[in-house]
Write a structure and sequence with these properties.
The protein is mostly helical. It contains six helices and five strands. The relative contact order is 0.14. The model has no long low-confidence stretch (mean pLDDT about 90).
Length: about 150
């Protein structure tokens, strides 16, 4: 939905350095930056995306909840760089809070800025994400409280 040239540019620079010993492929969306050192697709359909995620050893992404949930379901080590509203990458900074919370829980690795990516990438291949345990009863209780009390 929103371009994320900052992540794509940073990963392309890392790919150009030759420091990665893994194959890399990017889905770049509608951004204006086109990588020169890694293969990319602008968009892939859901089936292709699911296949790529299943086959990936590790994943680097924005901090969207859908991508995080998919990586956790597949038990894939995930490094996230949150989009920032102040940089025009999203409408606000909600991905920063999402990324920090999931990192605190041990579900993802977090790069606060693109400068953190090389250091965090070095940790990604040995990172074991903690499984997410959904507290369905707690969620139902909070929804019930909200509906009854309006708070």
């Amino acid at each position: 939905m929103f371009p994320f040239d900052r992540l794509i540019r940073a990963m392309d620079k890392i790919a150009a350095s030759g420091e990665l010993d893994q194959d890399i492929r990017a889905q770049i969306g509608s951004g204006t930056y086109e990588p020169t050192s890694m293969p990319f697709d602008r968009f892939v359909n859901k089936n292709e995306f699911d296949r790529m995620m299943s086959e990936a050893d590790v994943v680097v992404s924005h901090a969207g909840v859908g991508t995080i949930a998919t990586a956790l379901t597949l038990n894939k080590p995930l490094l996230v760089l949150p989009r920032r509203g102040s940089l025009g990458e999203h409408v606000n900074d909600h991905q920063v809070g999402t990324a920090r919370r999931y990192a605190e829980l041990g579900h993802v690795l977090l790069a606060e800025t693109e400068d953190d990516l090389p250091r965090m990438l070095a940790q990604l291949s040995t990172f074991k994400p903690k499984p997410r345990i959904v507290n369905a009863k707690g969620i139902a209780t909070r929804i019930d409280h909200f509906l009854r009390e309006g708070i």
